Amino acid sequence: MDFLFGRKYFRRRYNMKTFFSFLPILALSLGITLLSCQKNNPPDKPNTPSGPNSGYANTLYSFSSSAQDPNGDSVAIRFSWGDGDTSDWSSFRPSGSTISLSHSWSDTGTYLITAQAKDKKGAKSEWSSGFAIQIRRNQSPNTPSSPSGPTSGIINISYTFTAYATDPDSDSVSIRFDWGDGDTSEWSSYLPSGSAVALSHSWSSPGTYYVKAQAKDVAGATSGWSEEHGIRIIATTYPYTIALTWAKDPRDLDAHIWTPEIQGEEYHIYFANQGSLNNVPYCSLDVDDITSYGPEHIILSQTFPGTYTYAVHHFSGDSTITTSRAKVEVYHLGNLVQSFEVPRVPSGYRWWWHVFNLDGATGTITPLNQIDSLPPRPWLGEKEKNR
Ligand SMILES: [Ca+2]
Ligand SMILES: [Ca+2]
């Protein structure tokens, strides 16, 4: 009874007409079900890694890649470094982000770097195309040139020294100076191979110091130390120290001083007659520097009544005395008391700069400051000793 009723009921409720009327609803439900359970797609193949195409062993280099995920999932990337080593997965970043990781190689050779991506659901991409890096053995920079700079100076005044270094691999180089007084400079900033590096230093006590330079390349390899450049540093505690400095050209300016009569004789102190601090005329030129650009110092260890006349002569080299940027500084018992700059006027054939007169009894300095074709006082001929 129940069974019969059931069949009858079924026939009546689920005839074909009813079934077709439900079909669009069934199809829609199936579509929604399929959409929500859609298969996850892995990220696309990452871009070919980018980074340096050459480098040195045991140095870290950074490489980047990115990958899109078709579902817009976050992605992580890892790199295969071509030396049997594969990086850990990076952290997850939004689809398409640039992701960078670093690696160093311990041996020389050419290595192919590839990248792989995975999405948040763990689906992995194919490996990317390879990017080649050549790992070379770094060669140390060449030993720098001997520093160039002044060969004499005054205590507590800064002097600039220049050195050059080249690197066989054309790496950028940094230079440092050993100042010869126990002090070594910081490393300079990195400059292209072969650039001049200039650093300054002052010395606090008199003496002769030997300055040398060392180079370092970007990979950290250091050169040997250069040949030394000597600088004689003098104290300024003498009654008078007269410092002459100038720019690079002309290469040879000379300091000259004429003394008053000392024990019956006048003296002309210059490169050919350098005088003495301990004997007559108690006046000395510290150095005759014809290869670099000063400074030259004239020291008076005692003064005598009468007039000292100081002048500068352009002896040889290009350029002119009036474009030399020559400067004369007068120190009295350690203190700078007066300084002179060469007048910037057309020099013509005038190669002398008359700078000042000094009264040996009173210490009065009278500026002359004129450019002339003749020296301020006559050459003393055979009276000059030690020529
Ligand atoms: Ca995905
Ligand atoms: Ca190198």
UniProtKB/TrEMBL annotation:
Entry coiled-coil feature ranges: none
Transmembrane feature ranges: none
SUPFAM superfamilies cross-referenced by the UniProt entry: PKD domain
InterPro entries per record: Ig-like_fold (IPR013783), PKD_dom (IPR000601), PKD_dom_sf (IPR035986)
CDD domains cross-referenced by the UniProt entry: PKD
Pfam families named among the record's database cross-references: PKD (PF00801)
Residue span, PKD domain: 71-122, 148-222
Annotated protein name in UniProt: PKD domain-containing protein
Gene source species: candidate division WOR-3 bacterium
